[in-house]
Amino acid sequence: MRRVIPVFLALLALAGCVAKKDTKADQARVEARLQQYSALLLKMDASALASMYAADGELVNPSQPAVKGRAAIEKFIGSFSDFKVLENSDMATSTLIDGDTAEQVGTYHQKVLSPQGHHFEVSGRLEIGWVRDPSGEWYIEQLATFPGK
């Protein structure tokens, strides 16, 4: 029994020496991914936008059913290809990292030109769940928008 205690204490001490992930660097990576998403949205690049989602990722808006999976997300975004996004801003007000997941809360604002030539603006709250894959890249697990009134 006396040998077990020193071994246990040694293992406990080693566990404390394990390198912790750099959450500041992870926050910066996730925030950079959000800005990448924002830039792609400005271009309305449906394929590239869909590739930013996890394979089983989803796009959620309270006024419609969730769009799940990369192919469905690409098709959904592609259905707006006749719209021209004139301005787009996605701003995170909070980015929390927890291991291989991240949660972002923020706002979005867009100025858009419709195919009929009408200008309109949309804005609201944004909530994004991110997941890090084994390669270290961050992908959107769920992106939810809540339009303002």
Characterise the protein shown here:
This protein is α+β, with helices and mostly antiparallel strands and 149 residues long. The chain has one domain (22-147): Roll (Nuclear Transport Factor 2, Chain: A), CATH 3.10.450. The protein has helices spanning 4-16, 23-43, 46-51, 70-78, and strands spanning 53-61, 64-68, 84-98, 101-113, 119-132, 138-147. The protein has a 6-stranded mixed β-sheet with strand order 2-1-6-5-4-3. The longest helix has 21 residues, at 23-43. The N and C termini lie far apart (68 Å). Residues 4-20 have low confidence and may be disordered.
In short:
The chain has 149 residues and is an alpha+beta fold. The chain has four helices and six strands; from the N terminus they run αααββαββββ.
Secondary-structure element order, N to C:
HHHEEHEEEE
Low-confidence stretches: 4-20
Residues in helices, as a percent range: 25-40%
Determine Rg (CA atoms, Å).
20 Å
Count of distinct strands: 6
CATH C-level name: Alpha Beta
Beta fraction = 35-45%
Strands of the biggest beta sheet: in what spatial order?
2-1-6-5-4-3
What's the helix and strand layout?
Elements: H1 4-16, H2 23-43, H3 46-51, E1 53-61, E2 64-68, H4 70-78, E3 84-98, E4 101-113, E5 119-132, E6 138-147
Parallel strand pairs: 1-6
Antiparallel strand pairs: 1-2, 3-4, 4-5, 5-6
Question: Keywords for this structure?
Answer:
149 residues; globular; six-stranded mixed β-sheet; single chain; alpha+beta; Nuclear Transport Factor 2, Chain: A
